[in-house]
Each structure stands twice: as C-alpha cells, then as structure tokens.
TrEMBL record:
Belongs to the glycosyl hydrolase 43 family. Keywords: Glycosidase, Hydrolase, Signal. Residues 1-32 form the signal peptide. Residues 375-553 form the Beta-xylosidase C-terminal Concanavalin A-like domain. This is Family 43 glycosylhydrolase. The keyword Hydrolase applies. PROSITE patterns: TAT (PS51318).
Length: 555
C-alpha cells in the first residue's frame, strides 16, 4: 500500500509549504534580495527561496533542521557511492575512499539523517578503492572492495569482522578480476552472490570469502532515450534487496560525472536471483533533468527501511545515493537521502523531488547527533576518523609521530607534488582553516587545498622562503622571505575563492598574502579520479615538520 500521509507531507514540503520560516527552527529562509550567488544555486528549479542548513559544531552545516525535517546532504563533503546497512535499530554506512588511507570509514546513525564517524576498517593500502558493499550475513559483517593495487588491474577483495567497530581482517583477494561495484545478495536457493558492473553476477562460497562459480551476465539494463544528454551508458553500482516474493535490483546508468543530467537510478525486479528481470515502469526513478537543480549527477542508490518500518517491510522506506552540489563539484559527490513509496503493484517511486526543500525526518524525530569537530590539537590519533594520507606507500605511517604538543611528520619528497600529504574532507561551501608549523632540519611544510598531485594550491615555507603553489607547481616569481622556522598559515576558501594570511609571531601579527586563487575547476570533470578538493598538510624536503593547533571554522 502507498503511505499516503508521508507522501502528502513530502508533497506539501516540496510544493513550497516550507518556504516560510519554521517556528523555532534552527534554520531560516533567505530572501531574494539577500541571497549570495552560492546560495542561489540551492534554490529549486521553480525559483522559490531555499531554506538554509542548520549549523552544527564549528558552524559546519548539518541536515537536521531541528523541527522534524531535514535538508540534504545528510553527509556533506566527499562521501560517494554510499553503501548502507540496517542492523536492528542502527544504521551503518561507508563510502568509496579512493587513495586515502586509513580508509573505508564506518559511519553510524539511528535516524538516517544524523551521521557520525565510528572509525576506519581498511588499513592496508590497495591503491584506488571504488564503490564497495557493506553487508551482514549470519552475524558477521563483510565489506566487498573493488581495488586496483599497483595499477595492475581491478579485483574484488573482502574484509570481515564479528563486530562492526572492528577489528577488521586484512583484505583477501577473491580473484574476481576486471570487476567493480559489488553488491551482495542471498538467492532463493540459499547461495550467496555478488552482482558487479555490467550487470553480471558470480556465486560465492558459503563463507563469502571466495568465488564458487563463474562470472556470468545477469541483467540487460533499461536504456534511456538516445537524445538524453549523458556521459555514457555505464551500467554500474548494482544493489539488491529481497522484499516479499520479489528481488529488487537497483542500478546506476548514464555515467558518474560528465553532464549534470547524466547519472540516474533505475530498477528491475524478479522472483528469482537468476531472472528473468523486468524493468521498472517508472525508470528512471531519480535523475537530474535541469542544470538549475541543486543536485547534479544523482545516482548509485540503495534502498533501506526507515526507523518506523515494521516486520515484512511495511512502513517508511528511503533511498540513499550521491550527487554533486550545483556550483560545488569541488566538494565531491555528497550523500543524499530521499523518501520512496511502494505502490500497489509492488513497484516503488522516489518522492523527494529535486531535494531543494526540507523533507520529514525518517520516523518523525531525531535520534542522534551529526558529524564531528575538525579542529585538532593533535593530542589524540584521528587517523581514519579525520586524517588520511593520499596514495600512501606501505610504510607511510612510519613518518607519523605524536608528541606532547603536536604531530611530527617526517619529510618525504621535494615538494607537495611528490609527497603524500595528510588530507581532511570538508563539507562546507565556505570555511577557514589555520595551522601552526615548526621546521626541523631542512624541511618544508605547508597548508594546501589538494585534489591530487596534478591539481593543488597552497602556501608553504622553508627557513628561507614562503612559497606559493598554484596549478600544482610553485610560482617562484612570488617567493617571499621567511627568515623563520615557525609559521602560522590561515586559509579562507569562500565559495571557491581562496585567500591566505600568514604570521611569523605566533598569530600576534597577520599578513595578507598578495595572491588570491579561484579553485572551482579543481574537480573530476577536469582532472579525473572522482575525488574532491581537501584540506592538506604536507612535509617535504629533509627533516621533520611539527603541526600544532589545527583550527577549522565554517563561514
């Protein structure tokens, strides 16, 4: 049956009933004559004024508006390819971590809106990590991981744990080669299967740690009209569930990035895991159809029961997927939440609209807190929770030494271009970061906005010079004398325009750096890699850099 009360509430909110300020709400509306350019892109295609996000710790934006509604994203910043597990009253989710290690951070929620990090599950570098699948089978947790160690070809790996919080096993190569985007399901025959890009499937062993069959074609996906503007067909991200007599297969097509209108969500169903599969008559279930929408390239979805769902799957249901924020591809693909309704014919529809409006919180009330502070005095080890090396070598953690009053990182490489920086994901459109640094030996340290080794900007220093990095190289014409072994750098990223200040006297006197940078082009459609622009700290040259008093503040 269709949940008419939820559908009607969603429709009222989407239609604009929420355009007026909520009584007692944390958030407020923005009037037309006070909107900034960045805020305008949050408006829906109908041009109505958007609602601001609520503000959490350090001013970070959060989805929960404090009045029984939320506004996307539910996990801001670079959290793509979400894979979600409902485990009793708890939800767990992880995301593609690509070249960041420790990686595959597990996040926890009780209401699908307020998420906080638990900790990393993968510590051994496997090269690029793409869309994984988190699942539970007979009281054991599994993460199926497509990885490309040493760029020698993709294979599916698996890690497992008896407790979601770890410890997790070392990765096991399942030798399912040439595949990405695994999706786990138990068939009506009791066997375990992985579906992968293509859309293909392979039977697994009973313990889920190896293949027990051959890779075979599983489903010929629904095709969109040829005149639609997409990146490419690219059937990927298969996620499966069993509800009643039916297996449902949710798939992404249209390409992950490229045109804003490319990525989309489609579905099929079958009474057997072996098919035949019938296309959903509502395909595509989710798609960006207009560049005026606040979220672009929406896709790679998983269905999940809400907190109020009862036995048999009756109650509220939701769809979790990712998308790029209009005007802020630099933030990467962010995690979005949209309600769905089951129709009388056994299919489902997405009913969230373009996601520019508040939606009712699953279950009607908040059940937790969101996010965590990014400011760090380096007194506790926050590797995997906040910090991760980009594309580290196997011995990268040997560079790290926590001391009484800071974090010492041994130098490696000659500059940021060949040194693995320490990076931190951010989810705000505008923010300020500050860090204090001290040099030992002939080291060079600095603060970056880092996409990859071919795309970064930032400020660094040696004992002789303050260095300016743009276009992934030093702008030697802008060198300035340093004459110090300690420096504080402040970086303001205001809607993709970057301003720097620096202080030689511990923050007593600040100097405006005379070169501003525009960084809106540092994203996947220009540089590839599916990454985001992250805050980075680097230690290069010969010696060590001590980092102290890292501060983050959303603007």
């Amino acid at each position: 049956m269709v949940d008419n009360s939820r559908r009607n509430l969603c429709k009222r909110l989407i239609a604009g009933a929420a355009a007026a300020p909520f009584a007692g709400a944390v958030a407020s509306t923005v009037t037309a004559n006070t909107k900034t350019d960045s805020e305008k892109c949050a408006a829906s295609a109908d041009g109505k004024a958007p609602v601001n996000w609520a503000r959490g710790i350090e001013g970070q934006r959060k989805a929960d508006l404090g009045n029984g509604t939320f506004i996307n994203p539910v996990v801001p910043g670079d959290h793509p390819d979400p894979t979600i597990l409902k485990d009793g009253d708890d939800y767990y989710m992880t995301f593609s971590s690509f070249y960041s290690y420790p990686g595959l951070i597990i996040w926890h929620s009780r209401d699908l809106v307020n998420w906080s990090p638990v900790g990393p599950s993968l510590f051994k570098p496997l090269g690029a990590i793409w869309a994984v699948d988190l699942c539970k089978h007979e009281d054991r947790y599994y993460i199926y991981i497509p990885a490309n160690p040493d760029d020698k070809g993709w294979s599916i790996f698996v890690i497992w744990a008896d407790d979601i919080r770890g410890p997790w096993s070392d990765p096991i190569d399942m030798r399912i080669q040439g595949c990405i985007d695994p999706g786990h399901i138990v068939g009506e025959d009791g066997h375990r299967y992985l579906f992968v890009n293509g859309i293909r499937k392979i039977r697994l062993s009973a313990d889920g740690l190896s293949a027990a069959g051959e890779l075979e074609s599983a489903y010929d996906p629904w095709r969109y009209p040829e005149d639609w503007v997409v990146e490419n067909f690219a059937p990927e991200g298969p996620k499966l569930l069993r509800r009643g007599d039916w297996f449902y297969l949710v798939t992404a097509v249209g390409g992950t990035a490229g045109p804003a209108t490319g990525h989309m969500v489609i579905a099929a169903r079958s009474k057997s895991i072996h098919g035949p599969w019938e296309h959903c008559p509502h395909n595509p279930l989710v798609r960006t159809v207009n560049e005026k929408e606040p979220w672009w390239s929406r896709g790679h979805a998983t269905l999940v029961e809400g907190p109020n769902s009862g036995k048999g799957g009756d109650g509220d249901w939701w769809m979790v997927y990712h998308g790029y924020e209009n005007g802020f591809r630099t933030l990467g693909r962010q995690t979005l939440l949209e309600p769905i309704e089951w129709t009388d014919d056994g299919w489902f529809r997405a009913i969230g609209g373009d996601l520019s409006r508040p939606l009712p919180i699953p279950g009607g009330k908040s059940r937790g807190t969101a996010g965590s502070a990014l400011s760090d005095d380096f007194r506790d080890d926050r590797f995997g929770i906040q910090w991760a090396f980009h594309n580290p070598s196997a011995d990268e953690m040997r560079r790290v030494h926590y001391e009484k009053d800071g974090l010492r990182i041994a130098a490696r490489g000659a500059s940021p271009a060949d040194s693995a920086p320490l990076t931190c994901i951010v989810g705000d459109r505008a923010y300020e970061v500050e860090v204090a640094m001290e040099l030992d030996g002939d080291a060079e340290g600095g603060l970056l906005l880092f996409y990859n080794h071919r795309a970064f900007v930032g400020l660094g220093f040696t004992r002789e010079f303050i260095k300016t990095y743009q276009y992934a190289e030093e702008q030697s014409w802008f060198r300035q004398p340093a004459q110090t072994s300690s420096l504080r750098i402040k970086l303001l990223n205001h809607n993709n325009v970057v301003t720097y200040h620096y202080s030689r006297d511990g923050g007593e006197t600040w100097h405006l750096h005379g070169h501003r940078m525009e960084v809106s082009g540092l994203h996947h459609n220009v540089f590839g890699g599916f990454l985001s622009l992250r805050v980075g700290l680097y230690s290069a040259g010969d010696g060590d850099v001590r980092f102290r008093r890292f501060r983050y503040r959303a603007v």
